[in-house]
Amino acid sequence: MTSSATATTRTALSVNVNKVALVRNTRHLGIPSVTRAAQLCLEAGAQGITVHPRPDERHIRASDVSELQELLKQWPQAEYNIEGNPFHNLMDFIRAQRPHQATFVPDGEDQFTSDHGWNFPQDAERLAPLIAECKALGVRVSLFMDPIPAQMAAAKAVGADRVELYTEPYAAAWGTPAQAQQLESYRAAAQAALDVGLGINAGHDLNLDNLAAFVAQVPGLQEVSIGHALIADALERGYAGAVQAYQETIAAGMRSKTAQTA
Ligand SMILES: CC(=O)[C@@H](O)[C@H](O)COP(=O)(O)O
Ligand SMILES: NCC(=O)COP(=O)(O)O
């Protein structure tokens, strides 16, 4: 059951523009523009921009990362979230750009897409100094995590400010008999994170169908980072139309959450 305190947590939308870069990279023409996409999403009300500059630069390139930092200077209310593996190329971007948030993701260099979170206690010792470095730079640290309540205390102990709950298993269960059980696992993991003082982010395969129920059930959800489905929706609706649809969906989830605590 969501408490009244967490029921009022506003869920920010951070648009991941990886897939705009993926299409751009298929020609040497510079279109579709990644910075233009981010500008239009911010103008439409997105609260942040997320990128995941993978080592192979299959989509987001180092030049995108710095150009988006310049763009975001015009949007002081918006947040910049840079994701990646801190043992690969992420720390160079964090040191250079000092974004609002660094999201540590344990991806391999040639991984198809992100598909798991960190493991504790195995990963704690090597993560701790890099988390400390980010925080010394004034960068919030979010750890990409599977929805395992027992892992949350260790994530806090290693210095994380937030966890990002990896939501692909929830998305895959959407519309199946396993949906409710999956959603409950995220609710429990989020509550365990809140109980030890962690903030809650979420992302991966969230979309217009599965988002409202997630927002309604997961306590203290501060940010969802959404890319693949939102950019696909933007191909039909335009960036502004897609952002508006996601913001309306988040708002519907918030209304449902608030009603539960009334
Ligand atoms: C960490 C995560 O779930 C996503 O942010 C990730 O950026 C997806 O990467 P691709 O866009 O390369 O699939
Ligand atoms: N951290 C999740 C993210 O940034 C976007 O994931 P997806 O919506 O592209 O699956």
From TrEMBL:
CDD domains, per database record: PNPsynthase
A molecular function (GO) term: pyridoxine 5'-phosphate synthase activity
Keyword Repeat annotated: no
Residues where 1-deoxy-D-xylulose 5-phosphate binds: R54, H59, T113
Annotated catalysed reactions: 3-amino-2-oxopropyl phosphate + 1-deoxy-D-xylulose 5-phosphate = pyridoxine 5'-phosphate + phosphate + 2 H2O + H(+)
PANTHER family in the cross-refs: PYRIDOXINE 5'-PHOSPHATE SYNTHASE
Subunit text: Homooctamer; tetramer of dimers.
Name of the featured protein: Pyridoxine 5'-phosphate synthase
Species annotation: Acidovorax bellezanensis
Source species taxonomy: Bacteria, Pseudomonadati, Pseudomonadota, Betaproteobacteria, Burkholderiales
Record gene name: pdxJ
